[in-house]
DNA sequence: GATGAATGAGGGTTCATTCAT
DNA sequence: GATGAATGAACCCTCATTCAT
């Protein structure tokens, strides 16, 4: 199938070893220069193997990219659960998960960007598989949120939306690293983000005019703000659906 | 300089016309297939011009990409302010800005992704220029936030962080469109996001254990959660710096 | 379709000119060295064009081979009819056709061998097309034979078999040129061949034992020739079926 | 010398066994796909040995081809004499030889074609050696012819020419198998061919105009048909054929 | 100003051959 | 003797770029 990468070499340990070797080189180079710009020759050189060898473990240049991206996403799936081991308190688990996510991204900023940039270069099936892996790691976060909600620590929020917000926030550390790096550590960055996401931003006073941020109001208001808009009372408690 | 794109053609209106023609084609193709995979010949064909003609308005293939990305970012800078025209109320302006940002991204999802994927293919100087444009559009949001804070509608939040959170949330509509599209309209998506970002997530009960999400606590706790951790009271009011 | 060779260049005269140029080089090189051994670069060099140019008139290396083989077979179809122009007498036409076939092969020995050697390198459809062309040139011979038969100059022979015999005989000039070249001219070769094919080989005396060459007799005789065999009278007049 | 194939293995029986194994695979694959297209790896796989092993019995990929072609030609030299064993009558021996040639070719059509297609891929010396083997098998036929002539069964024909005609006719069974296979058995094919070659084709009446097939006459006639030609009255209502 | 034929450097990929085990 | 992982030269083909018309 177009999904699997088949190696011409049989010995599993060898396949394992060589793939690690090749993928390490590939991730570095693709991350730094981009996938299309990097030649197989360069990958081979950096991996200290011959060009021909790569093609014994991989069918295509695209295969290398695929395996590289899988490896990156798998590293998330390996590391986040580790950070939760031994933790029982839901809130604590939640915090640990988010911080772990942030940390693992911080450790592989280039690799994370690589996933964003080059997933599109893969065929549909493989793209789907990567999505599945992303959903899987999102689940690590959303499970924690649900626990917090179940235990009454969080309001009845829209779990999926909150999850994506957190995930995107973590990814943003990579995507916008030029903005934050050097000014904050990843830990500080996550702290502040959680602070913001978990605490109310709007003041009591602000609540009165809050309705105006809702699109249903805006549809009316757009272009000519009606005085009525200001009178609309804030919606209470969202009714999240799943 | 490596920054400017110089055309061999003198007549300004012609340059304008041809560039629009070429860039439209380029953005579509780059967006759909990727920059490296798209050939100049394909761009020429789709723009109904000859290959040679492109090279009269552009020096490089990279030039085409640069102009394309600039055009996308400029379109944000054109459209968001438009949505704010005539609005005075800070909260209303804030909502309108975020919704406008969401809308403009929704209208050009592929183009937005293009910026994410291919900015790296440009030289450093041009990359900086694109960043500047992004900061400029972020400013459109952060200004609104600051107004809300100034008027006491928002708490004294970390403005930059909130801005990025909102921006990333809007971008996520493009980046994760496969997750949300078809299930929500962009307006609903933004509504829910704002809802989540502006309202408290943590319950009164949850606040007691909130300290455990903070990295400073976690650093201690990691691996062996101390009972003490649970007693730590939540930090009050973040001290945002700019 | 897999059959057609499409050029990226539009101007027909140019296509014509370039193809001739390329094919001349290709036929020479493929003929001398073999198709697989010859690189496109070599063809380009010998044709005084760049590698890239070849690929504007041809999609594949295989396309070059196909066009080359077609060109060879077409040259037969062009030249043989020419030799018949103005001739009316059937026997004369027959002789002229065979001599022309011999001559055209003699002029392009290498090219003729090329067809034999490399037809298999083509896809099935193209192979069929070449066969059709061969049949077409065989027809030029078989038509002459039929005329001779019709006019009572030839016995009622198995036309197809005789045709193939003649054709193979002509091809043999190329296939076994190492045997005949230098010892005979093509004209002498054809003379002798026709001599042999048209005149009786078996003597009156030989006829009595002729039956023994027939497989139906041999089947019985094989290993232990029966005396009966000798009594069998020679078959008269073959009954060709089609 | 470039002629010999030297094996690194000492044990003769092993060399024998392995070579048979390898050559069987090679002849099949080269015959089906062509020599250049077939990889050593494919040959190894089909022969159920490792790539490395092949190189212990052979120095080159070309060696494999050489041995394969030799094996094919040797099989002719083995089988034809067998068919003559016990036969004494010259005409009978002639018939048996030709039929045997036909049969052995029919049994290895692909292999026969292989010789035609790939002999050129060998070096000059080896090519000469193959030619010698071909001449050797031609001798098997020509000897029979000479016997027939000696005994007055055949006219004093051009033996070599007749030999080649017969040989080519047999080869044609392979070379043009797409034309005859399924319509004739090899035995029928040979029968008809001999019929044609041994019996006069030209009628008594035809003989009068026969001179016109001779090249010496044609040289004069060419382009401007001799007056004689024009006088020949065309017989109308000739025997219709198919 | 516009065209598109021509160029050729460069990249992906294959495969004969070697050699350590 | 046998294996098959490793090598790297070499080939097909693409495509950005030029330039004569």
From TrEMBL, chains A, B, C, D:
<dbReference type="InterPro" id="IPR036271">
    <property type="entry name" value="Tet_transcr_reg_TetR-rel_C_sf"/>
</dbReference>
<dbReference type="GO" id="GO:0000976">
    <property type="term" value="F:transcription cis-regulatory region binding"/>
</dbReference>
<feature type="domain" description="HTH tetR-type">
    <location>
        <begin position="16"/>
        <end position="76"/>
    </location>
</feature>
<keyword id="KW-0805">Transcription regulation</keyword>
<keyword id="KW-0678">Repressor</keyword>
<feature type="compositionally biased region" description="Basic residues">
    <location>
        <begin position="232"/>
        <end position="242"/>
    </location>
</feature>
<dbReference type="InterPro" id="IPR023772">
    <property type="entry name" value="DNA-bd_HTH_TetR-type_CS"/>
</dbReference>
<feature type="region of interest" description="Disordered">
    <location>
        <begin position="221"/>
        <end position="242"/>
    </location>
</feature>
<dbReference type="InterPro" id="IPR009057">
    <property type="entry name" value="Homeodomain-like_sf"/>
</dbReference>
<keyword id="KW-0238">DNA-binding</keyword>
<dbReference type="GO" id="GO:0003700">
    <property type="term" value="F:DNA-binding transcription factor activity"/>
</dbReference>
<dbReference type="InterPro" id="IPR050109">
    <property type="entry name" value="HTH-type_TetR-like_transc_reg"/>
</dbReference>
<dbReference type="InterPro" id="IPR001647">
    <property type="entry name" value="HTH_TetR"/>
</dbReference>
<dbReference type="Pfam" id="PF17932">
    <property type="entry name" value="TetR_C_24"/>
</dbReference>
<dbReference type="Pfam" id="PF00440">
    <property type="entry name" value="TetR_N"/>
</dbReference>
<dbReference type="InterPro" id="IPR041490">
    <property type="entry name" value="KstR2_TetR_C"/>
</dbReference>
<feature type="DNA-binding region" description="H-T-H motif">
    <location>
        <begin position="39"/>
        <end position="58"/>
    </location>
</feature>
<protein>
    <submittedName>
        <fullName>TetR/AcrR family transcriptional regulator</fullName>
    </submittedName>
</protein>
<keyword id="KW-0804">Transcription</keyword>
């Amino acid at each position: 199938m177009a999904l699997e990468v088949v190696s011409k070499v049989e010995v599993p340990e060898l396949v394992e070893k060589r793939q690690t070797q090749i993928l390490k080189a590939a991730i570095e180079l693709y991350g730094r220069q981009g996938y299309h710009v990097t030649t197989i020759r360069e990958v081979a050189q950096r991996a200290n193997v011959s060009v021909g060898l790569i093609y014994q473990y991989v069918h295509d240049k695209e295969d290398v990219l695929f395996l590289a991206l899988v490896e990156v996403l798998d590293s998330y799936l390996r590391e986040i659960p580790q950070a939760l081991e031994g933790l029982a308190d839901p809130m604590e688990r939640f915090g640990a998960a988010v911080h772990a996510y942030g940390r693992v991204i911080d450790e592989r900023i280039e690799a994370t960007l690589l996933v964003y940039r080059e997933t599109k270069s893969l065929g549909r099936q493989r793209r789907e598989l990567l999505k599945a892996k992303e959903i899987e790691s999102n689940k690590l976060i959303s499970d924690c949120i649900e626990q917090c909600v179940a235990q009454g620590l969080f309001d009845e929020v829209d779990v999926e939306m909150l999850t994506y917000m957190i995930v995107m926030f973590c990814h943003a550390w990579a995507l916008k690293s030029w903005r934050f790096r050097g000014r904050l550590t990843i830990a500080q960055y996550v702290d502040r983000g959680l602070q913001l996401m978990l605490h109310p931003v709007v003041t009591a006073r602000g609540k009165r005019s809050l309705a105006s941020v809702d699109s249903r109001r805006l549809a009316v208001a757009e272009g000519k703000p009606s005085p009525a808009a200001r009178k609309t009372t804030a919606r209470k408690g969202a009714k999240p659906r799943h």
